[in-house]
Specification:
Elements (H helix, E strand, L loop, with lengths): L21 E5 L4 E5 L5 E5 L18 H14 L24 H5 L4 H20 L1
Antiparallel strand pairs: 1-2, 2-3
Protein name: Phage ABA sandwich domain-containing protein
Length: about 130
């Protein structure tokens, strides 16, 4: 299992009091995972039907707050990622995939796309201010 990119500890050593949002990307798997606790995580994937590990899970409940925190944590961890709706260049990993209903999110039918657009706009404003 990958260590946390923020503190480099094994993810199982984290507790909710650590103040460390354990976000990382699984490069070839096409999914993004965000863990707030050692044994309770929020998993978001491009196509959960093709990922038996998360398909049909009812014990994992994504939240609006986690989606935003995940986006910022991932950008902090992977600054080379381009700010597009497709996430990392060359990979169709949707930022909108941070919302549970991925199919609708990609089409802009859920709050995920609004979150994504707001996130990108905020980052672009920050970049413009620094230039």
């Amino acid at each position: 299992m990958n260590p946390c990119p923020h503190c480099n500890r094994p993810l199982g050593e984290h507790s909710v009091d650590d103040g460390c949002l354990n976000a990382w990307a699984a490069g070839q798997a096409g999914w993004i995972a965000v863990h707030e606790r050692p044994k309770l995580g929020h998993w978001f994937g491009q196509n959960p039907a093709k990922e038996p590990g998360i398909a049909g899970r009812t014990d994992i409940v994504p939240s609006y707050t986690t989606s935003i925190e995940a986006a910022f944590a991932l950008m902090e961890t992977f600054p080379q990622w381009q700010l597009t709706k497709y996430g990392p260049a060359g990979n169709r990993r949707y930022w909108a995939g941070l919302w549970p209903d991925r199919k609708k999110a990609v089409g802009g039918k859920t709050p995920a796309m609004a979150i994504t657009k707001a996130f990108i706009a905020a980052m672009q404003e920050q970049d413009d201010g620094e230039g």
